[in-house]
## 1
Amino acid sequence: MSSFELTVDDQGVQSALKALADRVNNMQPLLQAVGDDIVERAKHRFDTSTGPDGQA
């Protein structure tokens, strides 16, 4: 009976996946930016008396 051993060096892949998981794990910066943008757009609509569709 034959057998063989396979060794995979996936340290680079593991590092990239960990970095991605760390970024996805903390959504606060992204959500803060989206929220800030929504607030600024709403303020601009009040200042210009326009709706989201651009109509007065």
## 2
Amino acid sequence: MPDPSRPIRTAAVIPAAGRGVRLGPGAPKALRTLGGTPMLVHAVRAMAASRAVSLVVVVAPPDGAPEVRTLLDEHSFGRTELLVVPGGETRQESVRRGLDALPDGIDVVLVHDAARPLVPVDTVDAVIATVRSGAPAVVPALPLADTVKQVEPRPRGEAEPVTGTPERALLRAVQTPQGFDRETLLKAHDTVVEGEGATDDAGLVERLGAPVVVVPGHEEAFKVTRPLDLVLAEAVLARRRATDGYV
């Protein structure tokens, strides 16, 4: 049983070992610049902006941990402690390496996409607060604006038959950071084999049969995946710098 007299500590794990091929050739997606600063730095700052987060673990490309550490050392993240560890060949393996690097005493774990550099601190705090209130897994999410069709897949470019239209009111677009009770997330990674249908860490927890709850996400927590996303992120960042003094 947790010791009620001990403060609850929160850490964030940021897997940043992917190449990000949809943004085109060049540096890994997490190291692409946004407003002159690598997206990874923005993502770490977004986690460090929460007073509840005492540690951020960045999971770097397998052969790039020293370079990522040097890059992050060029920036300030306030009082938040920072660790950099080499990642694995898959996202699940990389997240697990980040979990293995956590010290004793961490109770709540956030897993955050490096490609979501502009998530507001209020969203981060809402996820943490909901885990601390007893939820084993929490995801921020938004209602869908578009109607969604289920289709029978065909080779790219071919017309695909529609097989159903899910009720939009029952669907949510999931964001990060996703928050977890540490032991629940570790059990999920130990139990669920990669490729068994889970595409995020909350999905791993779902496979355990543990409850996952949703809290409101934010429009600015979108994922920078394609060149148009980067254009939108630059516009959001420019507005923040002009109105909020964001650096």
## 3
Amino acid sequence: MGEIPDFAYGLVKALDVRERSIHELLLEMSNVSFQGRALGEAYRVLIDMFNDPENTIFLGLAGSMSTSGMWRIIKWLIEERYVDVVVSTGAIISEDIYEAMGFKYYKVNPCIDDEMLLERKYDRFYDTVASELDYRRMEELIGEFVETLPGDRVYSTPEFLHEFGRFLDERGVDSIVAAAYRARVPVFSPALVDSGYGMALLLAYRRGKRITIDMVRDFYQLVEIGRIARKVSAIYIGGGVPKDYVNLMTVAQTLIAEYEEKKHDYYKGFEYIVQFTTDLPQWGGLSGATLEEAVSWGKVSPRAKKRVVHVDATIALPIIAHGLVSGGVKRKKPSDVLKAIIP
């Protein structure tokens, strides 16, 4: 039999086949190998993250999550208050509105004739298509909201999206930002114009409607949320700009402590952090960068509970969410951070 060697941290245990909940399966998968173990260990980190009452949790969202049918899971995570702050690409928080308005995404073969799709006005997302005409109606709805705003006002993205969430909620368009409005969860979008929002704001601008998104104000508010939090943690779906934006929040706190408060060697890294990604570290980009690398920057605490899972988020998200439901895993104590930026 033998004892566990001192360089190992546990036993690999073969899975048997029997009736069990997804929660139980995920817990037991932490004792297999490869990405199965990574998924199980990430699930255990999430449970610890949700059970820590002094914890502000950031959710970073990248990739084509809404077109792939994942947006209702994201909305559920917000409504159930598993997360306190959302940082998303503009695409994810606009392309969910498309379906929430009643329009449909359609399954296609990824080898379909794209020239034919262009002629028939359908836009393709790998194996999924959307009507270009309906997509424009979604952008028109954003434009309709923009027209209701007072002119020449400066917004951060959470301020802009909070008002948009109110607008959508009043109209029964039950989307991610509408859910965030109801749950008092701020939504940041550092690349907001790289989406249907950009098209709507551009057309409004050409008509003389000057709505300004102040990205310095945006970053200031994100950093202030991090500064007042007792602990900070993160869940990343994909990587990209949202991951870098949230990571920079921790670096900014170090700089402020250094230059304004004359503190040295001050770090407030993430205490719990999980990432689901298909990117790899050897290309040098942040999307695939390891969480161990982030320790060198002070972004992640050396004592943090952390796990990267190299998996398609359309596989991981449904499994994780249903594990939380079947295991009765609830958030211990959500943080109300919206009051820090929007009274």
## 4
Amino acid sequence: MATATSSLPQQEEPPVANGRLWAGVLLAPAAWSVAELLGYFLVARACDRDPPTGVAHAGITQDVVAVVLGIIAIVGLVIAISNLRAVGDVGDREMPGVPTARGRARFMSLAGVVMSALFVLGIVFFALPPLFVNWCNQAR
């Protein structure tokens, strides 16, 4: 019996688990999305005096939400940075032009760092208006 040999590259294990890679990419955008959605809800009800629909201290509530979700986004940034450090430098040593699991992990880690940093900045900008703007004292 002849043994079949394949010239296809062997499947290599990624240096970082897929769950950690996706957490580094998606945690900060998800936190920003939740902050924005809650912000729309809070701003729409900031000046209502009716207890069932009004939100007491909407500006403070929005800042508390921003701090909590900012911490979640920073956790995503830290995960992405640790993923990038775990992957290390990737070069086309064995087969140039052939994508590897290590190259994919490096790309996802780098994308996670960039995206997380931008979305953390977005959450910081989300938290600033309640500190400087009083929605209910505007001319109507």
